[in-house]
Design a protein that fits this description.
This protein is mainly α. The protein has five helices and no strands.
Length: 77
């Protein structure tokens, strides 16, 4: 499926680390290390972390991103 914002293949990597729609949320909930120059090893490191703070922030990122996506869909569709 294509991303509603950047018109690229919307996979987990794009959603979590690349799509410009979620840039502000990403900056708030993820360390710059992960999204500044995203790559697959960093993505795997992020998703397999057993650091409680990182895991809570991932959950918050997903929740806030879905809320934004719902607003974006209502506005542009």
């Amino acid at each position: 499926m294509l991303c509603i914002a950047c018109n690229k293949l919307e996979d987990e990597f794009d959603f979590m680390l690349e799509c410009p729609l979620y840039k502000d949320i990403r900056k708030r909930y993820m360390k710059e290390y992960f999204w500044k120059y995203p790559n697959i090893p960093k993505f795997i490191q992020l998703l397999t972390s057993d650091n409680k703070e990182i895991n809570i922030n991932i959950a918050m990122f997903v929740q806030k991103s879905f809320e934004l996506r719902k607003t974006y869909n209502c506005y542009y569709n």
